[in-house]
């Protein structure tokens, strides 16, 4: 899932200065599950922002709504009802959702309330950790299901660096060395021969270094009805 | 079919309601009875309720594997020759009159045979609608 963190109240309040009515829009997808941008957080944020201490003048009026996914343009246009007098949308979605809402309702200003932090998962209740950087060329099959692109600070492809100590990264003793983990798991799988494989430098254009990426599946446009 | 189900261990503590990040669970009290309600449209199926339930009362497997809900039923049109399903009666009704007359109840195979027969100057096959 995509994980996000709520920006500081000071920053959010500053970004909505001057608007008289703001729609606070939660997202029912990933950010609901990681407890940063769902319906509960949207109501909570509106309640907190209503306090005069965050504003130089009068606080704006807030209306709160949540839609299942802010990252679906046609879903938004069909089902999201924005009050006519709303002057801005404060979106609690990830960066993708914010942009798609902004495109769908241009020129209405759409302001992010979250900072999108990473793609990850919950290792344990309440703890989400980065797992994937969307590099566009997955090598998990060779690394025992542990991603060195997202879990190694240096994104090394051919084993640990000299800073790996007792299974920990030189960046911090609290961070496990990704390659130490890969080695240990491959050993358990009796697949240590994969450590001997040499991986050439990657083509980072697939990771987005050549501009925004796009996935097209032909045929979809024909099966979607016009709305 | 109810997706969100609890077993007999549920004691109404409402830990699930208090912890649901999607606000998909609600408790209503009326006439001395507390009722737990679930809104599937709001539910993110994150399983937080299942994790936090101190009674282990939430049968979350129903949220992951469930029966199919019947949504709508339509009368079918079958091929007049072989009986293969061609389309629904409702779909034919939605076509404009000119196209509707062309939408004969024939499968693609028998439609091709019919076309070949017309081209060869033979008689068209009989037509009919079977449900």
Give an overview of the whole structure:
- With 227 residues, chain A is of the alpha/beta class.
- Chain A has two domains: 2-118, Rossmann fold (3-Layer(aba) Sandwich), CATH 3.40.50; 133-227, no CATH class.
- Chain A has helices at residues 9-15, 30-33, 39-49, 73-79, 95-104, 148-151, 178-188, 220-223; strands spanning 2-6, 21-27, 61-67, 88-91, 110-112, 114-124, 127-132.
- The longest helix of chain A has 11 residues, at 39-49.
- With 131 residues, chain B is of the alpha+beta class.
- Chain B is built from six helices and four strands.
- In chain B, the strands form two sheets. A two-stranded antiparallel sheet of chain B has the order 1-2.
- In chain B, a hairpin with a 2-residue loop joins strand 1 (25-30) and strand 2.
- The longest helix of chain B has 12 residues, at 108-119.
- Chain B is rod-shaped and about 80 Å long.
- The interface between A and B is small, with 11 and 10 residues.
Taken in chain order, the helices and strands of chain A follow as: EHEHHEHEHEEEHHH
Q: Which range best describes the helical content of chain B: under 10%, 10-25%, 25-40%, 40-55%, 55-70% or over 70%?
A: 25-40%
Main pleated sheet of chain A: 4 strands, parallel
Number of strands of chain B: 4
CATH class descriptor name of the largest domain in chain B:
Alpha Beta
Distance from N terminus to C terminus of chain B (CA atoms, Å) equals: 29 Å
Low-confidence sequence ranges of chain A: none
Q: Biggest sheet of chain B, in brief?
A: 2 strands, antiparallel
Instruction: Count structural domains of chain B.
Output: 2
Our count of helices of chain A gives 8
Topology-level CATH name of the largest domain in chain B:
Alpha-Beta Plaits
Beta-strand percentage of chain A? 15-25%
Strand arrangement, major sheet of chain A: 3-2-4-5
CATH third-level topology of the largest domain in chain A: Rossmann fold
User: Would you report the number of β strands of chain A?
Assistant: 7
By CATH, the architecture of the largest domain in chain A is named 3-Layer(aba) Sandwich
User: How many discrete structural domains of chain A?
Assistant: 2
**CA radius of gyration of chain A:** 22 Å
Structural class of chain A: alpha/beta
CATH architecture of the largest domain in chain B: 2-Layer Sandwich
Mean pLDDT over the residues of chain B: 87
